[in-house]
Every structure is written in C-alpha cells, then in structure tokens.
Amino acid sequence: PTEDTRIPTRVKEATAVQDSCTTVLFSIHGRPAPTQLLAVALADVFMDAAQKKFSGLTGRPASPVLTGHLSDSSERRLDQHQHIHVFTLAERPDRPATHLVAWAPEGFGPNEIAALARINQLRRSVPSGSDATGGSQYRDLVRGFSPTRIVLANTGQPEDVVPQLVGPSKHWMSLTPFQPNRYQKRSSLESYLSDCVQRELTYRGITAQVISVRIRPDRESVPAQRFRRHRVGRSLATARPAFWLNVELDRPVFGPLALGGLSHFGLGLFGPTGS
C-alpha cells in the first residue's frame, strides 16, 4: 500500500457520555500544548489523575481497569492487556498534541467513565521554594509539559470515536515508536523486531502471523529516540531504544493496535495503511 507518514487526527467529537464504552476522547488545550514527543508523560499524568478521581468518587483505592492491577493488590493483571491505554494524537510528533484517547478493550464501567469525565487538567510539578509573598512556588517536573487543559469530546467504541486507528488491515505502521520489551540476542535486528512484534500480538490474543517487519526512516524527520521513553519519576537510563516500523501480517486485524514497551502509555501505537 501507499505509505502515508502523517499521523491521522480525524476524530468524531460529541458531548454525551455513554453508560458503557471502551474509548474516551479528550481535546487538548494549552499555550502551547505539549507535543506528542511527551506522550508517555501525558499518559502517566492522566492515569494518575484518573485513579485519584476514581478514589474520590467511589471511596475505593483504585480500579483494575485504570491500574492494570488486581483489585486492592499490587499484582499485575495477566489478561491480554485489557485495561486502559492512553494515546496522544498530533499532526506531527513535534507539533502540539491535539487529542488524548483513553481506550480499554474490556470497557469502562460507569464509575470509570465518571472519573475520566472529571479530569480537566493535567499537570505534574514539584515545590521549588517560596516567592516574595511567602507563597509556594512550583516548577514543572517534565520539561515542555506545563499545566494542560483537556476537555471531554466523545465516548463510544473506537470505530466510532477514532476510526483512523481501527482498520481492519494487514498493513500497519507505527504512529509512535515501537519499544521492544526484550533484549536483542544474536539474531539480525529485523528478525529480532519481528519476533518482538509477534510476541506482542500473541500477548493480546491476536493470532495473525507476522510476514515482515521493516524499519522505517525517522518519521517526518523526527528521530524515534527524541520521544520520551521513560515514565515520570524515572531516569533516561531506564529507556530502551525505539523504532519506526512497518508491519505486514498474514491476514487483516482490527485495531487499535498498541504493542511493546510503554504501549499503555502512548508508545507503540500503530495505524492501518491499507487493506
């Protein structure tokens, strides 16, 4: 298929909140808004806000849909990544982000939706001392990520809210860099990445087989390594290399397709490029 290297930003905005859905869309407002290069930080702060809103609303510590852990436990869920993913959409990775998408394949319940709907600002700052009047001053913890306003825009199923991420298709390209979860051994880089993608598909219950994986030149002249590849509070030393990829499968699959390290936090998001 013809390759289109632009990130699609076509969305369907509405105002009604449904009782049950898998996808929640927010529009992003900021002066300026963070770029998609900070997708991991945006997702990290959003998930933290979601858990706090949920606890405040229900009196319960956290929701397994929002945390990816078993109820009232630090034990991770091992059920094919059914809990929340947070994606950031932008015209280009180095341009201000326009939308944030919260997607959980298992679906959000009424309490989760109510909690998400109450999030209207994303910020992560730390005290930096006192000003001349004796008040506290704060500095942004993530460079380029100042307080960002978000507004609920739509809810529903992904094919209704973000159809550009759904397909079905046999051909997929990374819209944010793919970060392997495993270390490369003696195989070639292409074989190593193909194996990583295949394992990630299997973890998500997708039985399609990988035909080929091609490393793509830096998308729109934005190197994959410019993306933030570690969570807030962790150091760059924990970040693994990432890659722009084109993937061909043996049969069409439906998206959204999010694979690899930090795929719940905005990395490894793929979009269909053909049938």
Structure, briefly:
The protein has about 280 residues and is an alpha+beta fold. About 20% of the residues lie in helices and about 25% in strands.
Could you characterize the architecture of this molecule?
The chain has 275 residues and is α+β, with helices and mostly antiparallel strands. The protein contains 5 helices and 12 strands. The protein has helices spanning 39-58, 64-67, 110-117, 158-161, 189-203, and strands at residues 21-29, 85-89, 99-108, 121-122, 125-130, 136-140, 148-156, 169-174, 210-215, 245-253, 257-258, 269-272. It has a 5-stranded antiparallel sheet with strand order 2-3-1-7-4. It has a 5-stranded antiparallel sheet with strand order 9-10-8-12-11, covered by helices on one side.
**Beta-strand content:** 25-35%
Rounded mean pLDDT score? 83
Strand order of the largest sheet: 2-3-1-7-4
Give start-end ranges of low-pLDDT stretches: 1-9, 13-19, 126-139
Largest sheet: 5 strands, antiparallel
Count of discrete alpha- or pi-helical segments spanning 4 or more residues: 5
Q: From the alpha-carbon coordinates, what is the Rg to the nearest angstrom?
A: 19 Å
Q: What's the β-strand tally? A: 12
Shape: globular
Assign the structural class, choosing from mainly alpha, mainly beta, alpha/beta, alpha+beta, or little secondary structure: alpha+beta
SSE succession: EHHEEHEEEEHEHEEEE
